[in-house]
Amino acid sequence: MHHDTAQRGVTPERDLTPERDDRPGRDVTAQRDASVGRDAGGHPMSRTDHGGGPAHVPVWVIRFNEAFERVYLVLRVNAAWLVLTLLGLVVLGVAPASCAAADAYISGREGDRVPVWRTMWASYRSQIVRANTRMLPLLVVQGGALMMLWIVMGGGAARQAMTVVLACLAVISLFWATVSASALAAVPRVRRQDLLVSWRISLLIPGALPLRSVGLGLLLLVWVLLCWALWPVGLLLGAGTAVDIAVSLLGRRGERLLDELDRASAAAGG
């Protein structure tokens, strides 16, 4: 009797181990992960991998790394652009160096690491004549437009109406020549055409892509003013960033425009 009372007075210990479901088809891993909190994407919030690190990298870390890699690429491209421009004595080096910088950016579109110097040097050597013959006339127009603006701003025009007319002509010429030269650099297919065909296509692009052309002109204007105010930034990133802007706005869209022109010509010829 005392023995039965002792048994009733003792509370047996409870087994806190979760029951294991050994039914066929039951995923044991799913049972183990059921007790782990998960975020909206279904990823474990507190689980670590076998190496002791987080199960997934935060988005801001990925974005920061991408931005750092981009800035580092622009720094290298800009340094190579300066060297190649000086190698061509500036006048004959600006055009092929800009085309070489655009080719470096195009090579890195898919996120691959680009051998900047090797890529730009090969591009520079292969198209130093082609780039100069196609872009130098546009660079001359740019220089003439800037000179006209300088004269107008200095009060060189006799009448106010003439001042307005000359200023408008200078701005339009500068804008058109800048976008056309940017198209030649950013779209390799344009500069690979025959001379007259390259000029015709490059001069048509500002009218065919008006929104992108205006955006390019405004962004380049802001960037030039920023580099003028902060000359160390212009020295380290100036030309590299300008070419990067041109490739971003005109590169892929210019290629699609050429494809559309080819299909239209084939349809008209057929």
UniProtKB/TrEMBL annotation:
Biased-composition ranges, Basic and acidic residues, are 1-30
Question: What are the alphabetically sorted keywords of the record?
Answer: Membrane, Transmembrane, Transmembrane helix
Q: Where is this region: Disordered?
A: 1-51
Transmembrane segment boundaries = 79-106, 135-158, 164-187
Question: Which top-level group of life is the source organism from?
Answer: Bacteria
Coiled-coil positions are: none
**Name of the protein:** DUF624 domain-containing protein
What is the species of this protein?
Brachybacterium epidermidis
Taxonomy-wise, where does this protein's organism fall, top ranks first? Answer: Bacteria, Bacillati, Actinomycetota, Actinomycetes, Micrococcales
